[in-house]
Amino acid sequence: MTQVTERSPSLSAEQGRSAVLASALLRGAVAAGLGLGSVAMSVMVLWISSPDSVSGPGEALHAAAGLWLLAHGAELIRTDTLTGAPAPVGVVPLLLGALPVWLVHRAARDVLEPDEGRGAPSPGSAFALVAGGYLLVGAAVALYARGASLSATPLSLLFPSVVVVAGAAAAGVWTAAGRPLGPPPSWAPVRLHEAMARSRFVRRADVVGRSAAAGVMVLLGGGALVVAAALVWHAEPVQESFLRLSGEWAGRIAVLLLALLLVPNAAVWGAAYGLGPGFAVGTASTATPMAFEGRPALPDFPLLAALPAGGAGTPLNWAAAAVPVAAALTIAWFTVRRAAPAHGVREEAWSLRETALTAALGALGCGIGAALLAAAAGGPLGTHALAEFGPVWWLTGAAALVWTAGLGVPAALLLRAWRLRVRTAPGQPEAEAAAGGPDAAREKPGTGEAGEEAGPAARRWWQWRSHRKGWQWLSRRKAAPETDAGADSAPDHGPASASASASVPGRPTARPDRGDPDDEDFDPYDFLPTDPWHAKGSDEGSAGPAEAGPGEPPADATS
């Protein structure tokens, strides 16, 4: 009995760890099942609602499996073609691919959040188990779809499908850990280890990542605007293509859903068009802002009906160049907002070299992101004329790098100089000098750069102004009654009555040592002069009227 009691804690801990690992594996499989179920349900609804469907439910499920594999980047082979020859389908709807990526990311992130009464696996174990559970379901689906009308090529199942799943799981683990920038691997150079040990490198890396991500998002947003403008401009052919593809409402809904899933692809194509390289519409035609040459091999589809007309480009086509310009300015802005903060200290601003290097690295990250998106947004749609469809990834990435680096780095330097245009003293925030405007430094002569330029004359003027304000204030206080209320009705009985009135609650008392803040003529000043004539005038103020100092105007005249 004693041996069983002593072994029970270790056995329960081992069982608890096994339950945690099994739960992580199950979460990966559940994430894959949710994505597959969503696609299968949509396909089955369209199949049921289609009145002209000649295939059975098995074909619909095979099509759903093929579409789910296509969402991970796998290249499909379509066998039911008009010619009978198999044709590849490599264009991945990016909006459809966002669903499995998000599910894997969320599963890996939630695994590292321990449940009540149960621990969490290590980050490495969470990554391996979630990705492993997901890939087990993916392997089963690939075997099920093998030999169907839409089947995946084995090589595309390894790359990029496995890479996409592994990358999403790694991103989920990194998010659960707080997005840290860990130490580099042991084989990295020593200088990289030293740089990573400094907090400045971490700040620079954060700025580079944010500026690169912002630049890519601006490219996508600008590309979407280009596509929207093209759809509006070619509204009539787009409508005709949409109505010509299907006459039934179920088929039109399917066409509309497919067009919506391809909207991110169209945004990437629009961004590539604005960058300059454009995109290929078949092997013999390329659309660029300068010209649309060749004979395009265009399938009948609404988004493709919005392509520009053939021939040389017009100023409307050239206006798409505003997209990379906006991306470059965005990278410059995100860099300078940390390199030279608006409310920071001048001495804490980054140097010209650091600002330029950070902006250049942000441009490099934007170019890499544009290249990856261009590679994911295009692909083959056939074996002959449609073997090339979409932007060329390396040309798009190089163009994005040239645009954002060529315009973003000078813009960052100019914006930095603009933010540092106000000269401040050491340790003085720029916002303090900027808040008062150009007259803030001249408010008190003898302080700041303006005071140094003004010299003794400005200081003497300030002293005279202070004397004058002081005499005006003393004259008003002597002419005013000692109390603000009840002076006409109550006679003055000397100090006793003043003390009695001060003791009565609610009765106002005279405050001869203060001015009335509500008086529009009241103007406080910073200091009282310490000249002998002023001291003499102050001492004689109780006995008789004040007299002006030598060479100064009297108080009554100035008032």
Summary tags:
4% strand, mainly alpha, 8 strands, disordered C terminus, five-stranded antiparallel beta sheet, 559 residues, 20 helices
Description of the molecule:
- This protein starts with a helix and ends with a helix.
- It is built from 20 helices and eight strands.
- The chain has a five-stranded antiparallel beta sheet. It has a three-stranded antiparallel beta sheet with strand order 2-1-3.
- The longest helix is centred in the first third of the chain and has 48 residues, at 2-49.
- By secondary structure, the chain is mostly helical.
- A hairpin with a 3-residue loop joins strand 4 (279-281) and strand 5.
Distance between the termini: 106 Å
Count of separate DSSP helical elements: 20
Beta content: under 5%
- Shape descriptor: globular
Number of strands: 8
Spans where pLDDT lies below 50 across 5 or more residues = 1-8, 423-455, 482-559
Spatial sequence of strands, sheet with the most strands: 7-6-5-4-8
